[in-house]
């Protein structure tokens, strides 16, 4: 099996092309390959497949290091985009791809920057998510930490609980309140995005992912958080998001418009491994 090692703002990936290779990976093989001492070593594996639909170019799937398929919107989209371009699996700049039940459109420019249409955000709060403090006008103030400015819930592929603060260093304290004291009722696949607004064009973002803890970054989390800031008039329509391991540019034109993300991924090396030894 030929593979490529890549990384983006969120994870290090092993990317496998099953368009030109006949590859089938069982969960136990993925787990063994993810081992950093005895395998290739990675946080996530991205498997690129032929399209399932007539109006898309590719389908891709993402697996965590335990061999479990991750069914989250847009996960690994930057690594996917750079891979199909540098491996010449596609020669056009505008690409459509499916992941799980979603379809995503993207464009690759001359500088290998990827512009991705991440879909339209939806904003609301609900008693199904929050169990303390009254809910009002889709935004509420909470008194858990004095440095919290606003909070809101955004649906963009999955649900995001966005907390706008005036000091990103309160992240750990905030997590103790929200996780340990039960101020948030979690449903499946809800992430907490903590965002500090530096000015109207720059933010700092840290992300706590459901069942995983803090992660290095989140492409979809950046889009959800910035769209909330723009909706509330705190940010301009073009924003630079600073994450733990890189930056993303987010653009949102407002109501009923899709969010656009601009970013890239890094190709580290190519490799080959004999899967027969791993069966």
Automatic annotation (TrEMBL):
Pfam families referenced in this protein's UniProt entry, alphabetically: DAP_epimerase
Record's GO cellular component terms: cytosol
Transmembrane stretches, start-end: none
Entry's EC annotation: 5.1.1.7
Keyword Kinase carried by entry: no
Gene Ontology process terms (BP): lysine biosynthetic process via diaminopimelate
GO MF annotations, alphabetized: diaminopimelate epimerase activity
UniProt keyword Acetylation, yes or no: no
Keywords annotated in UniProt: Isomerase
UniProt similarity note: Belongs to the diaminopimelate epimerase family.
Descriptive protein name: Diaminopimelate epimerase
Gene for this chain: dapF
């Amino acid at each position: 099996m030929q593979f490529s090692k890549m990384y983006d703002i969120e994870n290090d990936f092993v990317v496998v092309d099953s368009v030109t290779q006949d590859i089938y990976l069982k969960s136990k093989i993925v787990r063994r390959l993810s081992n950093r001492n005895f395998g290739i070593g990675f946080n996530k594996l991205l498997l690129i497949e032929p399209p399932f639909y007539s109006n898309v170019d590719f389908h891709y799937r993402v697996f965590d290091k335990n061999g479990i398929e991750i069914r989250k919107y847009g996960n690994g989209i930057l690594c996917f985009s750079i891979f199909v371009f540098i491996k010449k699996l596609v020669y056009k700049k505008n690409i459509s791809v499916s992941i799980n039940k979603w379809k995503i459109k993207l464009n690759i420019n001359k500088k290998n920057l990827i512009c991705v249409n991440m879909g339209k955000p939806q904003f609301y709060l609900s008693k199904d998510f929050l169990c303390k403090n009254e809910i009002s006008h889709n935004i509420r103030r909470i008194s858990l930490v004095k440095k919290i400015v606003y909070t809101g819930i955004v649906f963009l592929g999955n649900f995001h609980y966005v907390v706008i603060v005036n000091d990103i260093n309160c992240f750990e304290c905030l997590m103790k309140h929200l996780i340990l004291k039960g101020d948030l009722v979690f449903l499946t696949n809800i992430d907490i995005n903590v965002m500090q607004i530096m000015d109207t064009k720059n933010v700092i973002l840290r992300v706590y992912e459901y069942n995983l803890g803090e992660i290095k970054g989140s492409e979809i989390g950046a889009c959800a958080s910035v769209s909330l800031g723009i909706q509330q008039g705190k940010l301009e329509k073009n924003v630079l998001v600073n994450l733990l391991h890189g930056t993303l540019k987010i653009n949102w034109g407002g109501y009923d418009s899709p969010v656009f993300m601009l970013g890239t991924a890094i190709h580290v090396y190519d490799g080959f491994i004999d899967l027969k030894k791993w069966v």
